[in-house]
Amino acid sequence: MLQAVALALLLLPAGGALVLAVTALSIPRAAVRLIGPGVVWLGFVATLILFADSLQNSTPHDFTYWTWIKSGSFTLPASLLVDRLSVFMCLVVTGVGGLIVTYAVGYMDHEGDASYARFFCYMDLFIFSMLLLVLAGNFVFLIMGWAMVGLSSYLLIGFYYWRYSAVIAARKAFVMNVIGDVGLILATFAIFAQYGQTTFAGVFAALPKSDGFWLEVIGFLLLVGAIAKSAQIPLHTWLPDAMEGPTPVSALIHAATMVTAGVYLIGRMHPIFDVAVWSHGAAALIGTVTALVAATIAIVQTDIKRVLAYSTMSQIGYMFLAVGIGAYGPGFFHLLSHAFFKALLFLGAGNVIHAMNDDQDMRRYGGLWGQMRTSSICFLAGSLSLAGIIPFVGFFSKDLVLGDTFSKPGAFPQALWVVGLVTAVLTAFYTGRMWWMAFWGSPSKERPVEHPHEAPPVMLVPVVILAVLTTVGGLLQVNALVPDGWALVSRFLSPVVGVVGWPPSPYDLPVTLGTLALAVLLFLAAYNFYGRPVWRPWSAAVPWLQRLLERKYYFDDLYDALFVRTMDGAASGGDKLLEEPVIEGLPTDVGIAARAGAGELSLTQSGYFRTYMLVFVGGAVTALVLILLVRATS
Amino acid sequence: MPDYGQIQVGAGTLDARLVLGLAFILFLLGAVGVLIRRNPIVILVCIELMLNAANLTLITFAAQLHNLEGQLFALMVMTVAAAEAVVGLAILVDIFRVRDLDDVDELSELKG
Amino acid sequence: MIVPQIVFWVMAVIAVIGGLGVIASRQPIRSVLSLVAVMLALSVIFLLLSAQFVFAVQVIVYAGAVMVLFLFVVALLGPMREQATRRLRFQWPLSILVVAVFGGFVYAEAQGIGFRAPDKVDLSVFGTVQQIAAGLFTTYLYPFELTSILLLVAAVGAIYLSRGGRTASEVRREEEEDDSPPRRGTRRGREDNVA
Asked: What is the CATH number of the domain that holds B68?
């Protein structure tokens, strides 16, 4: 029964995408509104069934539906692994995903019928791919889901395909994703070469107990995949550009789900990472560095979606930090909490963007608190959660991660903790900046819309729901504040990913409270710079720093010069040297030559009888001579 | 070895090689005429000349080999020559109805 | 003894002169008459070579009917003289070259070929009408009948072709009245100098 439910969970969004793709223009818009989010909500129901089962029964279910490949001693089953971790991820995907897709019904309403159906087709395709990714029971299906998620991301970023910037951004995202795909595929090859297994159960059973060269290689290759998908340095430059897609896309794919696939991967592969300590540590290091760098860049962004994009990058860095030091439970709790408040922030921003006639520049907002009260309240909840302020869920999850990092013995975790603390402070600052600049004060002179209207219910209700979840979500796991308090998420996931292996430090609570105080302080401090009628940007005093941050540490320029220009050069060179002369030229030249030859040959048809006779007789004579000569010499 | 090339003509002999040489010369003359002359009737006449030369060859060998088939063949050739001359001349007359023709080079519309 | 030789040589000379006349005469009537001379000379040589029936047929049918047809056509078509022309200037040298090559080659090949022994037949009846008839109506009946069909075909063809289309003046009148665009490559097209 559960096997069927799991399959239904996968096939429902796939079916939705297929139906929408085939019938896009022939069904009424109401049907699209029903099918698009409907299949996601049905998937949520299926997930709840699986969730209820997993609450009672913590053993994983390895469902094999059929044997896909059977070649000699190698078999590849079409299998789904339904355990607590995958069910957890499915809840996030279908639950938050359902809210976002429902929101999109209203947000995308101004599109034409074909575009509208296309949007929901792609969204359902994405949900299907993400579910396949988290439910896969072997590496091959994991890669399939992984790649299809990248494809959906490309399709959705480039949704407004008539815009050059959107197409370029989609291409950039896809190319960087493929780099990750290659890492993942090579890791699979290495795993198969070393251990001869492709299913998760098989691989984890066959792993060696001690670290080795190949295990580290596999770890690093997996890490490459995770980094690309989760937009960590150095494969991070695609995420801010991905904001070219519609806001629901940014909320779903680039905040709540796809970018967290890297975290899921590390969690799922924890038997590998627990042993391959170097790649494990690298994951934590990369995450922390990314968190800091992204936070610094977020401070100078003026586009509201870009601020949120960099903050996503930063928060995922925290998740990488958590799973990188072995605190898997807290890492996934932060994943869940981030899904709540980041989706909330994006959808709230969507409300504002929608009301502002698609203007995303925060400098032109101001004073929305008075005019869009509900959205502003929800956005405030999300902002405070992001800054890590009590009682919102962001506080509980982020400070749990920081606390566990602080508690872990060793110089390396301590160093990571310091960086994480600085990042948290910066996070509070830029979040405050965003809030004060966009929502407080008096309306900017350059406001595009004088009296923005609040969002319609279909867009407002999901936002409110997410705000509620953000506010009360902290109750799921309170052990950041109350050391012996309950930790529902960690406990839920512990049969799969284990528990945090070190006790909390005695200084944990004071440190947490101190972090909280700093966050509040910086959030309010941002008012000083941005909340007043006339701003005083902090960066006015250090223009070089502002330029560095605005150019995103010149990463984009570096990649452009190194890779993009080279490839463009190679492509245009190939076009000039190979395509035009040879591949196009050859058939064309053959045609020209044939015509010219025929033209020449047709001159022999002179029309003159005597010429024909002469040729005829001459030819006969020549033939006769040749024959007789041959006969004479042989 | 007796010279089989000698043909009995009554009380005397005639060397077959001489007759064949005559036929050869006539044939070559006819060939040159076909290629060079521009009047269509003369071209047909030269073709007839070549046919006659061929006939002479046939008859010569019939006489040398004492084989009647040569003569019968020559009769066939004559018949065919007659038929072909008739049709050729009819075509010429037809063309001549439409245009004044004394040069076969003018009939060059089927060019290119 | 030498009578056949003399007859042959005289006839040979007549034939060659006639042949030259055929190809070299300016007026076509003279070509036709030269051919008649050639045919008559050849018929005598046939007679020398024991081909009595063929001699008779050559004179009666070939020289007497076919050549008369040629004469009629020449008379019908009126005087035609070949003008000097500048077209196909290489035709003369090339033609003579080709024919010379052919001639030289055949001559070279023919050297060293000997005649084979003649069959044993009754020479007194060789070439007579009875012999020819016997051959035509028994062994070679099939080709004989086929030639009669061939003659029928030729006759039908000639009658059809001479049924009459338009005369030259009629064609010219029709062309002048014709308003449709000239077809490329035709005389009308060339006259208008359309590319």
From this structure: 1.10.287.3510
**What does residue A393 show for φ and ψ, rounded to 5 degrees?**
-65, -30
Say if A513 falls within a structural domain: no
Domain containing B65 equals: 6-101
Q: Do A609 and B31 touch (CB under 8 A)?
A: no
Whether A606 sits inside 8 A of B111 (CB atoms) is yes
**Is A387 among the domain residues?**
no
Residue B110 lies in a domain: no
Nearest alpha carbon to residue B75 among C60, C120, C8, C118: C60
Residue A605 lies in a domain: yes
* Residue A96 resides in a domain: no
Give the residue numbers spanning the domain of A577.
Answer: 557-633
- Whole-model pTM: value is 0.68
CA distance C181 to chain B (A): 17
Q: Does any domain span residue B87?
A: yes
Inter-chain residue contact A605 with B110, CB threshold 8 Å: yes
Q: What is the pLDDT of residues A529-585, one digit of tens each?
A: 776 666 666 666 677 777 777 777 788 888 888 888 888 888 888 888 888 888 888
Residue B112 lies in a domain: no
Chain C interface disruption, residue of A606, A614, A629, A630, most C CBs within 10 A: A614
CB contact under 8 A, B72 and C32: no
pLDDT in tens, A67-105: 888 888 788 888 899 989 999 999 999 999 999 999 999
Whether B112 sits inside 8 A of A605 (CB atoms) is yes
Give the count of domains, chain B. Answer: 1
Whether C166 sits inside 8 A of B97 (CB atoms) is: yes
Asked whether residue B91 is assigned to any structural domain, the reply reads: yes
How many beta-carbon pairs below 8 A join chains B and C? 257
Radius of gyration of chain C (CA): 24
Q: What pLDDT does A114 receive?
A: 82
Which of C8, C158, C168 is closest, CB to CB, to B99?
Answer: C168
Q: Average per-residue pLDDT in chain C?
A: 83
The domain tally of chain A equals 1
Which residues have a Cβ under 8 Å from the Cβ of A108 and sit 6 or more positions away? Answer: A115, A116, A119, A246, A248
* Residues C160, A365: Cα–Cα separation, whole Å: 100
Does residue C191 surpass a pLDDT of 50? no
B24-72 pLDDT per residue, tens: 999 999 999 999 888 889 999 999 999 999 999 999 999 999 999 999 9
Q: Which residues of C touch B78 (CB under 8 A)?
A: 57-58, 61-62
| Alpha carbon distance A170, A179 (integer Å) | 14
Nearest CA in chain A to C95: A614
The first and second tokens of residue A415, run together, are 């160093």
In whole angstroms, how large is the CA radius of gyration of chain A?
30
State the Cα–Cα distance between residues A629 and A312, nearest whole angstrom: 92
Decide if B48 contacts B85 (C-beta within 8 A): yes
Pairwise CB contact (< 8 Å): A614 & C109: no
- In 3D space, the residue among C58, C106, C43, C45 whose CA is nearest the CA of residue B15 turns out to be C45
- CA-nearest of B97, A307, B59 to C78 is B97
B residues 56-95 lying closer than 8 A (beta carbon) to C: 56, 59-60, 62-69, 71-72, 74-76, 78-87, 89-94
pLDDT, one tens digit per residue, over C59-116 is: 999 999 999 999 999 998 877 766 666 677 778 888 888 899 899 988 888 887 788 8
CA distance B36 to chain A (A): 7
pLDDT at A349: 92
* A389 contact partners, CB below 8 Å, separation of at least 6: A395, A428, A516, A519, A520, A523
Phi, psi angle pair for A210, to nearest 5°: -120, 160
